[in-house]
Design brief:
647 residues; mainly alpha; 3-stranded mixed β-sheet; 32 helices; 3 strands
């Protein structure tokens, strides 16, 4: 007999705590080390046993200390926490855009939320740390803009960064073996740099070693390693005290930082690192020539040329879309991804499924409690919330990836599986999918949905099924958690990322542009309209890049070139501000395609584009973020363009 969703979840422990414990033990981390500066190890033990639900700021910090970037998690928040997130996001947006008047005002308002806390709890300390970090970054922007030669402001900036760090971690002494999050490492780096610490080179070297620890996932490694390598190389090159050995080490650091960024499609300090890499390579080539090692000198010169091409492509993007090429803040580290108001989610999903409050809360809670949760976001017992979510075919976890699992191996395999599917590595993808099946519970509907969609994509890429068969398979996958007609019929919607991915896959692989496909495209676009208006896209950027690139392409296919361009520009700008590359090359290609269509049809255009140059940038940017399939596609288009007669 098939189990109901409630039966599947009945008696299950809160997955986040179990996952946290497994990840901690996997990395050989003690309770005391993980809890240091945050909470007592007894409190952490209760979180791991599922006896206590950690607040979102603490959840994020614990994940980051274990080297896990929270960027792939969806989070369900009660009303008070959701309001805090909204205020935090407004402040981050103002600082990243250098809107200092708004930033100062928003920072003052934000502080009022936690200053009255007399107990100085861990949440108070994390909130104060965030506020001090924002204050320091605002001071830095003001100081840089003032052009003061004495740079007196740097001391104040260093003081704020140090005070921020000391809310949860030590700011002095050796950092060997310290269990810091990416945010804490950044605060330490800034306090060392702006405080002009005499031992900062030695401490930068220690941080580089720590950043290579296997507990860090690739994104966290790239975040920490790139900034540390940049600061270390900048100091060494500016001081002019390095000899051959130090310059050779610096060359390795730069190259390693660039490689780490490329693996995850990020550009934190990439432009700056490319400048340093070129300087070091020029010195390397000169020395090789002096020693008669012409072949090695030529290799260095080839790498200089490649470095220049990468830097020039980045510069072109930054200039066209009005984003600074220098990495001037680190607001992205505080962007909280995929936050949802739990009350609104439950109400919206209930209405989508045609359930009354009475029917939903039957055997779980009172109608009054459900009403207060839906309308005001009032907290209720965790068991009740989990039961309500389960009844709606939603994850019963407050913090989740697309998989419902407490197994770190499953999360790691899923990440590799996504990459293999994206690059059409079909045999590797099939092997990973089979391995994933043994690591997750396939009784959980959302897990089954992920597995089915991935299986359908692999079969399609292999040519085992046609497009129509693929779309049928995706409808079946969607039905694991939500009926297709109910998903499309509802005006107000809450769809999980996996459900959105199912509908997006239908759009991409359906050839004819019929009325159903137009409705799907319109629905996908509307999913993110509210976040665009509020400047909150950064919190949904992974899905936004994927979905809106598809939407922009389809509007172009329908001849709506201006609308397609508008979406692509917004996508590129958001990606660049968050120092991401994945959304950039696709957005540029959409704009090139629209431009060529206007030319063919004699439609006026506002801006002349150099198609060959744009396509070359697409090749370089996709190569930079190791998107091989896209790189080969752009190369084919570039080869065709070069054969076209010049106007």
């Amino acid at each position: 007999m098939k189990k109901t969703v409630n039966q599947i979840y009945e008696g299950r422990k809160e997955e986040f705590g179990v996952f946290l414990r497994r990840q901690r033990k996997r990395g050989g981390v003690s309770l005391e080390a993980l809890a240091e500066g945050l909470c007592s190890f007894g409190e952490l033990a209760r979180i791991e046993r599922g006896e206590r639900i950690a607040g979102k700021p603490l959840r994020d910090r614990l994940l980051q200390r274990l080297g896990i970037s929270p960027g792939c998690y969806e989070n369900f928040l009660f009303g008070e926490d959701y309001e805090r997130w909204e205020k935090r996001q407004k402040l981050l947006y103002a600082v990243s855009r250098k809107d200092l008047e708004s930033a100062d005002k928003l920072l003052g308002e934000y502080r009022k939320q936690y200053e009255a806390d007399p107990e100085k709890t861990v949440i108070w300390r994390l909130e104060r740390q965030f506020s001090l970090s924002m204050e320091a970054q605002i001071l830095r922007i003001k100081g840089t803009a003032s052009g003061q030669e004495s740079k007196d402001w740097e001391g104040e900036v260093a003081k704020r960064f140090r005070e921020a760090l000391e809310m949860t971690a030590l700011a002095s002494g050796s950092v060997r073996g310290k269990l810091y999050s990416a945010q804490e490492w950044y605060l330490l780096l800034e306090s060392l740099h702006y405080g002009r610490a005499e031992d900062r080179e030695a401490r930068y070297r220690e941080i580089l070693c720590e950043a290579k620890e296997p507990r860090f996932d690739p994104v966290s490694q790239a975040e920490i390693y790139s900034k540390t390598a940049y600061y270390l190389c900048r100091d060494g090159l500016e001081n002019g005290t390095w000899g051959l050995r130090e310059r050779a080490e610096a060359l390795t650091w730069c190259e390693s930082a660039i490689d780490r960024l490329r693996r995850v499609g990020r550009v934190y300090y990439l432009w700056e690192l490319l400048q340093q890499w070129e300087v070091l390579l020029r010195g390397e080539a000169k020395m090789q020539r002096m020693w008669g090692m012409d072949k090695k000198a030529e290799e260095a010169e080839d790498r200089i040329q490649e470095s220049r091409e990468w830097a020039e492509a980045l510069e072109a993007m930054y200039e066209e879309f009005g984003v600074p090429k220098e990495t001037e803040d680190f607001c992205w580290l505080y962007v909280e991804t995929e936050p949802y108001h739990i009350g609104k989610v439950i109400r919206t999903r209930r209405e989508m499924l045609g359930l009354t409050r009475k029917k939903l809360c039957e055997g779980i809670c009172s109608e009054k409690s459900l009403y207060r949760l839906e309308r005001e976001g009032k907290k209720m017992q965790d068991e009740c919330v989990r039961a309500l979510m389960s009844k709606l075919n939603l994850s019963a976890e407050y913090c989740r990836t697309e998989l419902i699992t407490s197994n770190p191996d499953a999360v790691e395999v899923m990440d590799k599986l996504r990459g293999a599917i994206r690059n059409y590595e079909n045999e590797q993808a099939k092997w990973l999918l089979n391995r994933l099946e043994g690591l997750i519970s396939m009784e959980i509907p959302s897990n089954c949905q992920v597995w089915q969609r991935c299986q359908a994509l692999i079969e399609l890429h292999k040519g085992s099924i046609c497009r129509d068969q693929f779309i049928d398979r995706i409808r079946e996958a969607l039905a694991c958690t939500l009926d297709y007609k109910k998903a499309m019929k509802s005006i107000n919607k809450y769809l999980t990322n996996e459900e959105i991915s199912c509908i997006q896959n239908m759009v991409i692989w359906k050839q004819e542009m019929d009325e159903e496909k137009k409705i799907q495209i319109d629905m996908l676009e509307k999913q993110y309209e509210m976040y665009e208006e509020k400047g909150q896209i950064g919190c949904f950027i992974s899905m936004y890049e994927m979905v809106m690139d598809c939407v922009a392409s389809e509007w172009g296919n329908m001849g709506e070139y201006d609308k397609s361009d508008q979406i692509s520009k917004k996508l590129i700008m958001e990606s660049l501000y968050l120092r991401r590359l994945y959304g950039v090359h696709g957005g540029i290609y959409n704009m090139v395609w629209n431009y060529k269509q206007r030319q063919k049809k004699g439609i006026p255009f506002l801006k002349q584009r150099d198609v060959e140059k744009d396509l070359n940038h697409c090749v370089i940017l996709s190569k930079l973020c190791q998107e091989t399939v896209h790189e080969n596609f752009y190369k084919e288009k570039l080869a065709i363009q070069k054969k076209q007669p010049k106007n």
